[in-house]
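Form 7-S
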Amino acid sequence: MADSEQAEVVLGGRVLHSAGLADLVWGHVSLRDPGGRGVWMKASGLGFEEVTERDVLLLDERGGVLAGEGPPHREYPIHTELLRARPDANSVVHVHPPHAVALAAAGVDLQAFSHIGGVFAAGVRRYGGAAGLVDTAEAGAALAEALGGDRALLLTGHGVVTIGTSVATAVTTAVMLERACQLQLIAAGFGGVAAPLVPAEALRAYEHTQSERYLLDAWRYLVRRTSA
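Output:
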């Protein structure tokens, strides 16, 4: 759907904005450079909807700008360190969606009681060590350790990170996580989920949501809606 790394990062940001996951000029999506030079991500100071291909930077592991125009985000270590720790992945998203932030702050576990929540039937852990900026390699490595082999992590007092084999899967995971958190907060206003499923039950019920194909079907819709 995009013919360059820069275009793919731009598209990921536009989808995040269209889906309501933008937070002014904060938040970022990255893509591993296929040549091994570092990561592609937008420059600092721009909203997702403002970014053009020339605003997408190629950063080395120390945050040095190898290509593109503009200053890098201070939190680039989220991306460099997570991708260093996860050779199975190629893209990282870090955003501050309001319902995910609220659910993490409430200290309750995300429950799977819909097909959206079913994507996270195995559970989503919370990490309390990143309330402030993740702007050093050490902080990024600690975040990567907390994420482990999962696809998403709630950062208490901060936001979320999601990871995927592509911008498409990482972005769609973030969109679905926010929607799942929103549904749970709605249910909480009516007394909570009456019959919560344990993870094994949820995984059986929502097995169809566990594949990348499921995410990519949603991604294609999100792109169409963003481009309309």
